[in-house]
Design brief:
951 residues, alpha/beta, Nucleotidyltransferase, domain 5, Rossmann fold, 35 helices
């Protein structure tokens, strides 16, 4: 097969734009056989933005041949070729126009896009951007955005794709060829060709070890593992933890030449082990660089092995869970003198259900056409590689696969358990089994609370718990112990029941039952016919109620008061809007009709369960049973929201401004979760260790203790709090500067003045630091305003300005772009205040625009404030300030990530020095140098500091 890999640089993407450079690489029999490149005189000026991107200017193309001459040289090379390109639709449109304008027939050969192919063949790729793919494959990309260089690397990528195709199991390629029917696309034709080629050299029989049913799958049956240690091995561990740690240290010194004891980490190891031994709860604040995860994993494993106790570790983010799995556990496996087992257990929806996926493929049930087929293709390839079946490994393009994943994810309601033909290969049951036999289980806060709601049936029994990222524990508890109902979730449940004759659960079941001529089968068909119009009625009534609720939301909320312009309206039981009575009648109707439907379906499902095996309906009945339970939950959630039965909850409506009622969300959250945390964790666990870099406010743990319900004075000895010194020398590494004459924001005119000063100051600092700057905002709107004006000022100096929600909403992608660009300013909001790691020279300056107070009108903040006022307490000092201080500390922590990092933090909010509460913010920082000065002294002081620091 012969391929022509094509890339054009052009003056833009509109019909009036022209080609300025051509890159063409010919591949035959998996070898590059020819190359062609040329600049092209476009006959029009090249825009400055294109020159900045490509490096090609008017002078370079002045003597270049015109397009007709270049096309004449290209046409013979394209003969009998399959055209390949990265986002080929762009290049193809320019090629067809060039051929047409110069009197040639249009290109009518096959056309393939490397982006589609990469998505299917390399489902773990985190980015499809050409330079990022090159980085992942180790391909050198010398001159990005120049056609010859882009075509060359695209050809290299295409060769990798061909190799990957040839290495796939035959069964996977055969399934892919069914998925991408050759008639529907050139990609389908190509898969067919690959299958034919593979079948010439391989038969399914020679690869049977990897096959089960219809998939090539990369896992053995679970439950047959060899034990990782003998019982006697544990007795070899020293009886004292300090002796054990001395042994471990010797190994680390041999392994790592630069190893040295970190005082804070050693203290943490001792405190965690001591808390476990004495049955205490421990709250330990440990700053960046302490090595927190090893600080709790080592004593957890030692104690767990010695005492034969299981220890659970919970993180807030999946990222940290993955980091522990990928980095810390393998290190400890290599250092520990005794074999141990560590497992990762996430929420059930993170795992693929093989039965559902098989059914989906067999039914060819693809709602979103090509997109769903590509997602299914990704998953077929991934199945031949994954050991965990965890969606975290997969990278769907820009949220496109989320809906498809939801339809094939594991869930308890539709699980056949041991009756499932896939049971011994099941990823979720494997993860559960591994957690049951593991010494340490790594999970996340969401899973902890899901287990609590499921009456502790999901996680293995445990009495020792480590909560990392503990400053999020109370917030996650609120979310998970509350109730959310999305408009679309309710609609989807009704949709699954009665979608269409082919793939709706009830029509599919009816079609199967009609093959059986018994009276019972007919009675069930009659039931299905009876509930169908009722389901349509529920949908129509839910649409009507959702529309009315959205109207209420739209008229009562002020989008300028919320982050991202989201609409929010709190509903109060003792102050409901006049229309609420009418809405309650609508909800009551939904409740009654849904009850009627559920009664009939419950009865039918229980009858079907008795005969499901003889009628071969296990899968169908289980899925239907799951959807019925889901509908029942949604009915209850809606009823709870509308009737507001519990005064310890706050109720609100949320929605976007564009999708109207389709964006509607009903939220009910407990105002105070501390009694629940006490009941489920602190009262019943032997030892709970809580750790984070940000647990104290003004050197005190009172705020966090109160939030978690640990302020009880009855048993003061049960909780120990420890604040560990930072391993970094912040006095030498970080300078905090506050421009004391900076304007404050008061009123609209005040905001404009603030923004003008801010843009000017950021630009001056960015020129001095050559970019390398992260600016943290508390408002998306302000970020976007500053982005526009700052870009205008800095572009002529070659400094790139990247904005969250402007250049990309993907935090990881923005961070990569920032790190890979020599001079950038990155503007971020909420998610950039924590969890972003930019060590080294990429980040020199951190600017905090405003102190991160939560909006006082957010329903939960409002309800907590009301509760404190009733107790005659100062809600601002008791709630708002501590919350903001903890967030502020997280933001500050972005700057210094290693012992060698140095930099400046600018606080543009003068409230830190002008108010009585400002001291709490500065006093909570880990000892940097703090100075305030007039704004015009900022740049000279920064220049001096960077000179002192040798930066």
């Amino acid at each position: 097969m012969k391929f022509a890999v094509l890339d054009f640089e052009t003056t833009g993407s509109q019909p009036a734009d022209r080609i300025i450079q051509v890159g063409l690489v010919i591949i035959q029999d998996d070898i590059i056989t020819d190359r062609y490149t040329s600049l092209v005189n476009p006959g029009i000026g090249i825009p400055s933005s294109i020159t900045t991107l490509t490096g090609i200017d008017d002078e370079m193309v002045r003597e270049a041949p015109e397009l007709d001459a270049v096309v004449a040289e290209m046409v013979p090379l394209l003969q009998d070729c399959v055209l390949v390109g990265h986002n080929i639709a762009f290049d193809l449109s320019f090629l067809q126009r060039a051929l047409d304008e110069n009197g040639y027939f249009p290109f009518d050969g096959r056309v393939l896009d490397t982006m589609d192919t990469l998505r299917v063949l390399f489902p773990l790729l985190t980015s499809l951007q050409l330079s990022m793919v090159c980085l992942a494959f180790g391909i050198e990309h010398e001159r990005p955005h120049q056609a010859d260089s882009d075509a060359e690397v695209t050809a290299e990528i295409w060769l990798r794709c061909l190799q990957k195709f040839q290495s796939l199991p035959l069964l996977t390629i055969q399934r892919l060829s069914i998925l991408f029917d050759g008639v529907t696309s050139d990609f389908g034709w190509f898969v067919q060709e690959m299958k034919t080629y593979k079948e010439m050299f391989t038969t399914v029989d020679t690869e049977t070890g990897r096959y089960f049913r219809q998939f090539a799958i990369n896992v053995d049956d679970w439950g047959d593992e060899e034990p990782v240690r003998e019982d006697a091995d544990v007795s070899k561990l020293p009886d004292s933890f300090s002796d054990f740690y001395e042994q471990l240290k010797e190994q680390m010194k041999q392994r790592f030449a630069s190893y040295e004891d970190r005082e804070a980490q050693v203290r943490m190891l001792e405190e965690v082990e001591s808390a476990f031994q004495q049955g205490l709860h421990l709250m330990v604040e440990a700053g960046t660089g302490t090595g927190k995860s090893l600080g709790y994993l080592i004593p957890s494993l030692y104690y767990g092995l010695k005492q034969d106790k299981k220890v659970l570790v919970s993180t807030h983010t999946i990222n940290l869970q993955e980091q522990i799995r990928e980095r810390d556990i393998p290190l400890l496996h290599s250092l520990f003198p005794v074999g141990f087992q560590a497992s990762v257990l996430k929420g059930r929806s993170h795992y693929l259900c093989l039965r559902k996926f098989e059914h989906k493929l067999n039914m060819q049930d693809f709602e979103n056409g090509k997109e769903d087929r590509i997602t299914a293709g990704q998953m077929l390839v991934w199945l031949s590689e994954t050991k965990s079946g965890d969606e975290e490994e997969l990278h769907f393009a820009a949220n496109r696969g989320a809906q498809f994943w939801h339809s094939v994810a594991s869930d308890s309601d539709s699980c056949l358990n041991r009756a499932c033909p896939w049971f011994k290969k099941c990823f979720y049951h494997r993860a559960r089994h591994e957690s049951n036999i593991a010494d340490v289980v790594i999970t996340n806060h969401s899973m902890l609370f899901t287990d609590t709601k499921a009456e502790n049936r999901l996680l293995p029994t445990y009495k020792h718990l480590v909560i990392d990222e503990a400053h999020h524990f109370e917030e996650v508890a609120s979310k998970h112990l509350g109730i959310e109902l999305y408009y679309g979730t309710f609609i989807n449940t009704l949709w699954w029941l009665y979608k269409d004759a082919r793939s709706g659960q009830l029509p599919s079941l009816k079609a199967r039952l009609q093959r059986n001529e018994s009276e019972r089968a007919q009675a069930w068909c009659d039931t299905i016919d009876a509930v169908a119009p009722k389901l349509v009625q529920v949908k129509e009534q839910w649409d009507e109620l959702a529309e009315a609720l959205y109207q209420l939301l739209a008229t009562r909320s002020d989008p300028s008061q919320t982050e991202g312009g989201q609409l929010v309206f709190r509903v109060k039981k003792d102050d409901t809007p006049a229309v609420w009575e009418k809405l309650l009648v609508l909800e009551e109707n939904i409740h009654l009709v849904t009850n009627e439907v559920l009664k009939k379906l419950d009865k039918m499902v229980s009858e079907l369960k008795e005969v499901q095996e003889e009628l071969d309906l296990q899968g169908m009945v289980t899925d239907l049973s799951g959807t019925v339970k889901e509908l029942s939950r949604q009915r209850d959630n809606l009823h709870f929201f509308m009737t507001m039965p519990d005064d310890n909850y706050v109720y609100w409506l949320e929605g976007g401004q564009f999708n109207k009622a389709k964006s509607l969300q009903l939220v009910c959250v407990p105002i105070d979760v501390s009694p629940m945390l006490q009941q489920h964790f602190f009262d019943v666990k032997d030892s709970v260790v809580m750790t984070s870099a940000t647990l104290s406010v003004g050197k005190s743990f009172d705020y966090t203790c109160e939030q978690l319900g640990l302020e009880s004075k009855d048993e003061p000895a049960k909780l120990k709090t420890v604040q560990l010194p930072s391993p970094f020398n912040y006095r030498q590494q970080a300078l905090v500067v506050i421009p004391r004459d900076f304007p404050s924001i008061r009123g609209n005119s005040g905001e404009q003045q603030f923004l003008d000063h801010l843009t000017q100051s950021l630009a001056e600092v960015a020129l001095e630091t050559k970019g390398r700057m992260l600016v943290l905002f508390t408002s998306n709107r302000m970020l976007k305003l500053v982005h526009t004006s700052l870009k205008e000022v800095l572009s002529p100096f070659g400094i790139q300005v990247l904005g969250q929600g402007v250049d990309s909403s993907n935090r990881s992608k923005l961070t990569r772009m920032f790190q890979s660009s020599p001079a950038s300013v990155l503007l971020g909001t909420s998610s950039f205040w924590e969890g972003v790691d930019i060590p080294g020279d990429a980040l020199t300056c951190l600017a905090i625009v405003r102190l991160p107070f939560q909006p006082p009108n957010h329903p939960l903040v409002e309800a907590k404030t009301e509760k404190l006022k009733k107790l005659n307490q100062n809600a601002f000092m008791k709630l708002s300030v501590p919350q903001a201080v903890i967030r502020f500390k997280q933001g500050f922590g972005r700057l210094v990530r290693t012992a060698n990092d140095k930099g400046i933090v600018i606080i543009y909010d003068t409230r830190v020095i002008d108010t009585t509460y400002g001291k709490y913010f500065l006093y909570s920082l880990p000892g940097p140098k703090i100075e305030h000065m007039p704004t015009n002294q900022l740049v000279p002081r920064i220049k001096q500091w960077m000179g002192e620091s040798g930066t």
